[in-house]
Amino acid sequence: MAWFRKDKTGLTPQEKKNIPEGLWTKCKSCGEVVYSKKMEELLWVCPNCDFHFRISSQKYISLLLDDGYLDEYDVNLSSQDPLKFKDSKKYSDRIKQAQQKTGKIEGVTSGMGKIGGIEVSFAIMNFEFIGGSMGSVVGEKIARAIERAINNEIPLIIISSSGGARMQEGILSLMQMAKTSALLAILAEKKIPYISILTNPTTAGVMASYASLGDVILAEPKALLGFAGPRVIQQTIGQDLPEGFQSTEFFLAKGFVDCIVNRRDLRDTVIKFLHYMWRQ
Amino acid sequence: MVEGPFLEFERPIIELEKKISDMKDFSVGENIELNGEIASMQKKLNKLREEIYTHLTRWQKVQLSRHPRRPYTLDYIKMMSHDFIELHGDRYFADDKAMVGGFAFIDKQPVMFVGQQKGRDTKEKLYRNFGMAHPEGYRKALRLFRLAEKFQVPIVVLIDTPGAFPGIGAEERGQAEAIARNIRDMSRIKVPIVIVIIGEGASGGALGVGIGDRVMMLEYSWYSVISPEGCAAILWRDAAKASEAAEALKLTSEDLMALGIIDKIIKEPPSGAHNNPDMAAVNVKKEILEALDELSKKPVEQLLEERLNKYRKIGVYNE
Q1: Which of A32, B115, B136, B156 could connect to B90 by a Cys-Cys bridge, CB 3.0–4.6 Å?
Q2: Final residue of a domain: which of A7, A35, A53?
């Protein structure tokens, strides 16, 4: 009977903090408690276990690009609601909330910048924006970033973090995988380097398209990487998953990542690769 | 008369069909003339069928796409072509039974067939892993695409999958990488590629063999970013809300035609492909041959440029 069943009213949105606040920060991975100011200095990498906290796309831009400067493109690209999608919430409301929460219009920030003096086309996904999910706008912005690399003959760098394709745009989201990957084929034919950087988490539709197609693939330590989410796999096979399954380290061991790179070494590593792969 | 399992909304049709068949038997057995009655019942049947099938919900169409008697990839290959030679293995790891492929002739046209294969009984379902391919399946498919390209044989892909397999082995062997590579490389394969979604077109599992010059869907097939059950489980937190998710996802052939994603809907026989597989195969074969005929006239550069543009322009946004 239903009288003792818990009343379900759909998903209750939980405000996730972009950066943990407060004087002290507890590591989500090992439980170590660190002075927050110290964490800021450490670029939000746990000094005990190397767990990489999620940081904002702005932080990555300052970390990676010369003078921390990105000449941003396609700033005003925004989502429509082509399917008039509604679950517990209207998709159009979900977008508005994500915009308010993140201060961003969509899930990707992209443009042109320099790394070690080398001009690059750069794009970074923002996981805080509906789980970094890829709908038409994310796909289009990534596609244009690839085209800027092709047209200007400059290397492409994409930092991914995504739960996959955005369900609320249905088939249109799926087709963004095709759009971006097809353009990467052209980039590859032109022998222009593409460095794909995976951060926590990168899965599903994004992992099964451009994130996996870098000439070199770098990943931050202890990120969740994979095709299917762990919960889906668990339910499908009806077993517990092995320790460390679908981590960066697992991905490296299985041969799908070139290097595990600590955030503080990311810029230097990218510059090194560009020196090997790119002669201006 | 239809034998075997049927869907709940098919029941009134099946029952009426049985009545007509009984009446025919009675008429013959007792030598009583009942042609008038039979004809009027037949009329009623046609009307009933039309009523039910013109008002199908999206969820009912999804159920039709999974009908236990629906023709599968190898059924279509058998009905549409001759001298099929199946090719096996990805040359790296294994032969994935959920993904089949090989050379065949459709009339006089040689083609390379590739597609997911489902099983009909429990044993066969397990053997085919329910039509859910592992990375080796996608890598086998790419090997066959390359083979076809090398010898200038056009490619026909028949898609029917509830998804790429989500499992430990699949992750260990790089399911995401295999699908990503296929999507990228298919976009540049230098022979015509015709895609037909014959049943289920679930997400990356479908798209991993789904890039082509012509994309067509059978009337009662579906194609989307996620299965209705998967979507319901995530957004509604309840897989039982699949019918609502199916409505929201807009995943039918009509929806995709309206969204400009596919090039054509291939009509199914009355009451669906499972009620007349031969007729379904005739329709599919005709469309494949027409598409190949048209595509084969294009120079390779034009073919590839149009293929890229086909996907490049997909997306709805404000600027």
Answers
A1: B136
A2: A53
Structural domain harbouring A34: 22-53
> B259 and A82 in contact by Cβ < 8 A?
yes
Tell me how many domains chain A contains.
2
Rounded Cα gap, residues A129 and A94, in angstroms: 10
Contact B314/A169, CB-based, under 8 Å?
A: no
**Statement to judge: residues A72 and A48 lie in one domain:** no
Residues of B whose CB is below 8 A from A140:
315, 317
Q: What is the mean pLDDT of residues B121-150?
A: 98
CB A187 within 8 A of CB A145: no
Say how many Å lie between the first and final Cα of chain B, rounded. Answer: 56
Q: Both A46 and A92 in a single domain?
A: no
User: Is A4 within a domain?
Assistant: no
Is this prediction's pTM over 0.80?
yes
> Are A246 and B164 inside 8 Å of each other by CB?
no
Same domain, A35 and A81: no
Query: Cβ contact (<8 Å) for A167 and B236?
Result: no
User: What ipTM was predicted for this assembly?
Assistant: 0.95
Strands A24-26 and A108-115: unpaired
Q: Which residues of B touch A11 (CB under 8 A)?
A: 235, 237
